[in-house]
Structure formats: structure tokens, C-alpha cells
Amino acid sequence: MIIDWKKIAWEIYEKLKEQISKMDRKPSLGVILVWNNPSSEKYVEQKKKWAEFVGMNFALYRFETNISEKELLEEVEKLNNDTNTSGFIVQLPLPDSIDDKKIINAINPTKDVDWFHPINQGKILIWDNSWLAPCTPSGIMEIFSHYDINLSGKIVTVIWKSNIVWKPITAMLINAWATVISCNSKTPDISKFTSISDIIISATGQAWIIKQEMVKDWVILIDVWFNYIDWKIYWDMDFENLKDKTSMITPVPGWVGAMTVAVLLKNTLKAAK
Amino acid sequence: MIIDWKKIAWEIYEKLKEQISKMDRKPSLGVILVWNNPSSEKYVEQKKKWAEFVGMNFALYRFETNISEKELLEEVEKLNNDTNTSGFIVQLPLPDSIDDKKIINAINPTKDVDWFHPINQGKILIWDNSWLAPCTPSGIMEIFSHYDINLSGKIVTVIWKSNIVWKPITAMLINAWATVISCNSKTPDISKFTSISDIIISATGQAWIIKQEMVKDWVILIDVWFNYIDWKIYWDMDFENLKDKTSMITPVPGWVGAMTVAVLLKNTLKAAK
């Protein structure tokens, strides 16, 4: 079965829309954009579209790439103190002249709807995930919850590259009582782990790192990342040869972005409350 | 080989003593103790003994069990603001009338040498571990570093029960490029994982959960927890039957406490600087 992410995202948006329609004061999402790359523009466009669809206010704060770190910190501080902004994000990447970490650490954790501030990350590690949640990992968890997949006792392999996705998803899966195997580029033989897994989540950007012979029947496959080779896009999973062997597989492309935005808006609603 | 934790702890203490001897202003460790249970008394005693050995100041703040949450929060605030206190801990458990989380969240993260505040936990998840470190997990990492064990590419199974140890050790091992398998009480068959592991860290308190036939030759075994059955103490590892099969094994009892205190004092020195 191919995972119907459009339906899952749609259900989240509809539910948010209904909740927000009952609120006297609408939640407001702010986005700081310092860059001129087309991917960032596209991501921001999606966030605006769906924020407005669910009935939130949306404000874009656009700055030239020559803005200084100090000036950007001041802009972050303005939004921290702005009572009209429920939550905001700083769209990454930032220009090289600016230290990402400094900017992210300056965001008030209660407005950090992108969930990048260490205090939010820490919360998921020790307390619970009732508060703001990491967007892409929570998007993955939304899939499991939509299909009533009980993670307790399941063997889940996570193959990763970036901090943003794999560490929080590992923590969230562990919180849900899964047995989690965290593989990286130094893992001697990943097929040893993929072949015994009930669920595989891959976010490496390495073309077709997961192949048909590496997984067992009825596995659930979640493909989170891609790369370009000779101008052609390749995802982590060899989708065409895998899809008939799995019980569920994410289609490509599209789902990651949509689920990430859906969770971002859920966070913004939480922050508004 | 039996891991010589006394030597490892001793080396840490000696190094701290030397560093502190060169400081004009000695680091100071504070301990808040609200309880009258003999284990807590014993733990505090050890902290005092070694803090004084390395040349730190040590201050014990003892309160009756009828202290209110509000009063205890005020005491925490006093130590947050006391420039003579480099770092301090609140010895757990606290009486049931007091919410642990509230108290821990009130500690200034830069003085949180027990590493329980969410902002510190978050730091290990995303940034690095150059700052204050979780005590028991770091004690385990000290063992690997003492014996020059390169974790990159190693398969490490962590079997856990408590938040304090297993989540941070999982994050730290992942940071060190190990392939980490996190097992819990819902894992269908842990021997499937222990039998392919280079290193096993067990902290369940379940008697002899790790037996000889479940591990491969030359495995490294780290035993973190114990339990009492009929007044007899049992650790997670069946030590007598395992010791000749391993390349390294932690002896019991003693090592966990010693390494934890050693890291606590390292944290206090960091906090003083």
C-alpha cells in the first residue's frame, strides 16, 4: 500500500481549520527569510499557503543577505516580544556570515515552532512530547498514528544523516516503546539490521540505499530524503522494486514537505494557546 | 578483562586535583538534601569525600521532609544567585509532596552539574557534549576513552529502564558514530540483538538478563543496574559465567557510583570556569 500522505495532511489541516475557526484571536505564524535561494522561497510559499488555508495569520519578514548577525538577533528579539506573533521560524540556511546556532538559541523556546531550540529538544528527550514537537519527525509519527500502527515491540531501523530528523525521531520512537536501531554511514552492513526490521526510516540522501533484497516482506518503509545524480532525483528507497513487497511505503516526492508543514502549523496553534 | 574502574576514577580525581590546585578560587559544589533515606545519605557522603579530596569546597543544605515546594524553590533560587556556588544538585528522590520536575526546572542550567535540566539534555541531543555532561552516561564514556575504544562502526546494544541513563547514553553513542540498538521491556527477543553486538550496556535491574549464551566472544559488557531478590543483590549480567567470554566487563558493585561522582566533579569544575 502506498501511504496516502495527502489525505493525512488534509485531515490535519481540516482539524486545525475547525479549531481555529472557534478562536476569537487567530494564531499568527511569522517567518524570517534571509536568502534568495529558490528552495527556501518555495518552502516559505507552502507554509504561507497552508497557514492561510487553516485560518492563521501569516507574516513574512524578508531581509537582504547583507544583514548582520547583530541586526538579525534584534529582529528575532522583536518577534520574541511581539504579542501578535504566536510562533515564528527562521528559514534555514542562513548566509555564511551568520551563526545559525546563535540565532536559533535567541528564539524564545515557547515561540520556537520549528523546534530547533535546545530547550525544546531537551524536553522530548526527558519529559514528554505534549508540547511543541519537531516537525519532520512528528510528521512521520502522524503517519503511524493515522494507520493505527502500535510501535510498542516493533523493530525500527533509522538510517540517518542530519541532526534535524534522526535524533528526535529516535527519541520519539523509543518513547513509543519501539526497539530502535540507529544506523549511520559507519555501520558495517546495514542489511543485517534492515532485514530484521518491521519499519525502516531512511534519511541519508544516498540513492537507493534500501533495495528489495534488504528488507523482509510486509515491512513499512518511510523515505525521508533524496539526492540528485546527473540532474535526476533519487530517493533513499528503490521505490519501483520495493513497493509490492511492503505493507506500506511512502510515495515520492511531496510527503515530507507536506507533513512537516502540517506539524509546523499544529505547533503554531499550540504556541498560540 | 575486568574493567579497572578504581584506576579510571582515580585518574580523573588526580587530574581534577591538579587543575584545581592551580586555581585561585576553588570550585564549590552544593548539595540540597531533603530526605532521610540511608541510600541518599550514603551517596551524599561519597560526593563530599571526593569533592574535598580534589580540593573543592563542599556545602550541604539539609532540610526537613516537611519543607514545602515553595520553600524549596526559594532555596534553589538562593543557590542560583549565590556567586560562591559553582554548581549544585538536588539529591533525588524528593518527598512525594514535592514535584521533582518543578524543582529541577528551577535550577539555573549553568549550575546544573547533575545535568537534569531540559536545556542541558537538549544540548547533548543537538550540539555537542563539550559542556556539562550527564553523569552516569559520561562515566560509561570515560571507560571507553580510558581503554581507547573507538566507537565508530561498533554495534552497541543498550537495554534500559530509566530516563536518566539510557536516553543520554543513546545520544552520546550515536554522536560517537556507533550503531546503537535501543532495547526495552517490549523488545520481543533481546538475544537477537545482544548476539550481534560488540558492546552491551544494560540498566534494567532485572536479575541476570544477560547470560553467557546471549553474547558473542570478546564482547564488552557494561552493567549499570541491580536489584534485590530475597535480600540478595543481583546485577543485570551473570558475571561469573560471562567474565571469561568477554574482552571487558565491569565488576560489581561500586563502579557506577564512583564514575558518576567523578563526572559530577568534572561538571562542577566546568561550571566554575
Description:
The structure is a homodimer of 273-residue chains. With 273 residues, chain A is of the alpha/beta class. The first copy, chain A, has 2 domains: 20-114, Leucine Dehydrogenase, chain A, domain 1 (Rossmann fold), CATH 3.40.50.10860; 135-257, 3-Layer(aba) Sandwich (Rossmann fold), CATH 3.40.50.720. In chain A, 41% of the residues lie in helices and 18% in strands. The first copy, chain A, has helices at residues 5-21, 38-53, 69-81, 100-106, 118-126, 135-146, 163-175, 191-194, 239-242, 255-272, and strands at 28-34, 57-63, 87-90, 155-160, 179-183, 199-203, 220-223, 226-229, 232-235, 248-249. Chain A has a 5-stranded parallel beta sheet, with helices on one face. In chain A, helix 7 (163-175) links the parallel strand 4 (155-160) and strand 5 (179-183). The first copy, chain A, is globular and about 55 Å long. The relative contact order of chain A is 0.16. Chains A and B meet through helix 5, helix 7 and strand 5 of A and helix 5, helix 7 and strand 5 of B.
